[in-house]
Specification:
Keywords: Membrane, Transmembrane, Transmembrane helix. It holds the Pfam family RseC_MucC. It comes from Candidatus Borkfalkia ceftriaxoniphila. This is SoxR reducing system RseC family protein. This protein is an alpha+beta fold. The chain folds into 2 domains: 77 residues, Beta Barrel (OB fold (Dihydrolipoamide Acetyltransferase, E2P)), CATH 2.40.50; 55 residues, no CATH class. The protein is 46% helix and 24% strand. It contains 4 helices and 5 strands, in the order E-E-H-E-E-H-H-E-H. A 5-stranded antiparallel sheet has the order 3-2-1-4-5. Helix 2 packs antiparallel against helix 3. The protein is elongated and about 70 Å long. The C terminus is likely disordered.
Length: 145
Amino acid sequence: MRERATVVKTAGKIATVRIVKNPQCESCRACAFKNGKSTVNVKVKNEIGAAVGDSVTVACEKDNRTLASFLVYIVPVLFAGLGVLIGFFVFEKEVYTVLLCLGMLAAGFAAVVIFDRILSKSKGFGMEVVEIINTEQQEDNHNGT
């Protein structure tokens, strides 16, 4: 995925960019646009040194929706299933098995939050600035040349 954005803040090798929602975003539903919002600010890697006010192209080359779906949906279910198995073999009363299942489900969601924090810091996730679009290119694009 590649999007055009404007740099609104920089801090070392990290930039905050503003992405304007385009028509293709309506069908995707995979990004951070909140209901009714037409822009979103995103922190991106800025290895090429874009400055505040620059128009840039940002890219997320890896499509991590499958991994994200696995983490969000499957991990808590696996934890809950593990709770049921442990409860079945350890406890005589079903109520304790149910409580353990619910506790493990909550632990699964906590694990998802922890995984999210760890993976969001890794290089495999997130976006980065891949091109600074100079003002001459912008004017040429607006003039149709």
